[in-house]
Batch of 3 targets.
Target 1
Amino acid sequence: MPVRKLEEFLDGRGVNYVRITHSTAYTAQQAAASAHISGKGLAKTVILKADGKMMMAVLPASRRVDLDLFKKAVGVSNVEIANETEFKDMFPECDIGAIPPFGNLYRMDVISEKILADNEDIAFNAGSHTELVKLSYKDFLELVKPKVATFSAVQ
């Protein structure tokens, strides 16, 4: 079952979404393969620390965050991938590495990779290593209101 907070948020706004259960996967690429979704259609969440502030970067599973591009896109001078111990308490109902890309539910800014707009739908971890949620990219934009920018590179 998706994180209750996420499910209540989506249901409360009448958003159409699909739950996808898959075998246990600890990386976004493994989850994509297990759920038979392309790496560009699965959005992964990476928590970054930008000028000391936690931010959520959302990008295709098949790509990686380019920290220099991210700095330019967001207008910060320092950015690094946050250590799990720094943010795990911010998402108490989520498995580490399976955080859904809804920073607005956690009072966190979200930066979405522009290339995700190439997808009609996106899927993402729903708080566990065994379940994804899939919804329209348009709904994702309307619900999360992320800053959209180019900040990734092919892995």
Target 2
Amino acid sequence: MAQTAVSGGVIALGDPVPWFSGRTITGAQIDLHVDAGRWVVLCFLGSLAAPPSMAELASILNECAAVFREDHCVFYGVLSEMPTDAGILASISGPAMGYIVDETGEIARAYGAEGSRRTFVLDPMLRAVANIAFDHADGHAAVLTGFLNHLPEVDGSAGVPLTAPVLIVPRVFDFDLCDALIDLYKRQGGEDSGFLLDQNGKTATVVNHALKRRQDLVLVDPQTRAILRDQIVRRLLPPIERFFQFKPTRMDRYMVSCYDADLGGHFYRHRDNLNAGARHRRFAVSLNLNSDYEGCDLRCAEFGRQTYRAPAGGAIVFSCGMLHEVTPVTRGQRYAFVPFLYGEEDAAVREAMNAQLQSGETHYVGGLDRLFPDAA
């Protein structure tokens, strides 16, 4: 079942398009928001049993094969029914090409493409930059292939260099504190960590090493947590308030995380606040405890392929709604403190979302996450 935002079926060029989720003919899960950071082609083909649809698809694939690359432009054919020759399409599917079955027509309606075959091209921020009907006077396939073959590389998609809205704050944790946290991790070790995923209306923690490989040590000692909280409040909150105009009052997660090159540590592109159990999160913090490693940097795909790294003891702060990834660590181990910041209204949202957590997940109990416990 597709999940779409309401658009009324009218999408003007320059508009952000509705996000949706669906499955391809091979069973792969597609979440449009994860495809940000590259050009996206959504070709509403209707039924491939109709001769025009198959002819248009063949023309596009013949003329644009070199365009469809995972790091540049991805193609999705949206079908109104499962095709009889699904095996052929499955054989040419891959990271840069897939075919989504939209039997209910929900995706097509959201894009104004129900009963009206057309192709949308989206920019790396998922805004419509082309809307080409199959009955275009100059020929749908000809216009589309001409457009696609002149797309710039992703880093040049805006015409000027882009910088992600991340805040880098040095000297948040003392170096001695960084070393102590690393030593604690090495003594006690970490556990394989997963990520939150909504399944059948419930949020659960899922482990998938293809998407994330990281080990975490949860910090439970009250004195240690108080020391960390104190330095966050005194040294990180003031610049967040100044530059992001937001005053956090709560902090989720006290843990030391380790990305290990020997294990292939990384975290594939994702957003931190989409799942029911994560909607309270406002800003993510990635505070580096060491610098003697290679790779394992922050990349924000919607703003190009540039990477960002905080110095040891320093933090990167960014919106939980921004698509981001942690690139693979290629040498050594990266240790980091990785909490989320939010406010009082968000804490109420978090408590309400307890009902959406799958059985076995830890439920939120307000109070232990306060950044200013004495004031409370």
Target 3
Amino acid sequence: MLFFVFGLLIAAQVKAQAPSPNSSATDKQPATLRLAGPAAGVSNALIHLANHPEDYGLSQAVEFTLWNTPDQLRALILSDQADFIALPTNVTANLYNRGAPLQLLNVSQWGVLWVISRDAYKSTLNDFIGEEIGVPFRGDMPDIVLTHLITEAGLDPKKDFRLHYLATPMEAMQMLIMRRLDHALLAEPAVSMALRKTHSFPLSAIAPELHRSVDLQQEWGRLMHTEARIPQAGIAAVGALRHQPAVLEQFSQAYEAANRWCYQHAQDCALEVAQAVPMLDAAAVQDSLDRQNTYFATAQEAAPELKRFYQILLDHQPATIGGKLPEEQFYHQEQS
């Protein structure tokens, strides 16, 4: 699951301990590229690169580290244990605004939020008026996106809906499976995992069938009069390596190509991911790859949509991005 809430949990220590973003960098090429990411789709291409670096023109050894907790992420950033990290976009902005030595390279995840439901006939937010919806991470990015879209639809999230806030996506998924909730907001690959699990029990009364109901990306495009996509997660360069343009360009091209390979070879990619991340099921990872928006953008290309998105987060919950919009230096500029 994407750990949207982590930026709030690690920000204070990052500001206290991170080296200056302007610290000098060596021109020496690293012997090993150290990659890190959460158990989410944004890490798929990193895992593939770690398995096949030579296929993408990387002469260095490549290793991948999974981060699951705020403490692990903090250690990776503050102890110089990673060169490139996969993060939700709001967490990346939060860390940057609080002094972390990083720069956004790209946004590769643009469509992972869904409302899933036991009712096959619900397809828009209006269909859920008066209904209870389980929502993980109150006041964080998924919640803000949902409530903003409800407001844009001319509805009141407090009066027209019963939003049941939960601590984690896993809790929401389990409540759906055990029939304690009928609807929930989830991100991929939790959506695909929940759908798979409800078909794995012999008694449908225990795990009644669930359905993809509202694609929040489509609602975003319809209600915001823009593309049907939300800039949700990407890759950041961390530490001194972000001052080495040649390394950044080489890695950026390799990641983009590996990301494209994952969508074109979903089954093979899913097997690699499940081997690296045992908590994920290969079939569910493949399902999520087959359903996600495949759009990819460099930080420079994504900047206009990101700035609009960050402004919405800033208006609703400033702490999620560190209280201000990131500076222009936050967005990596490609070499001409």
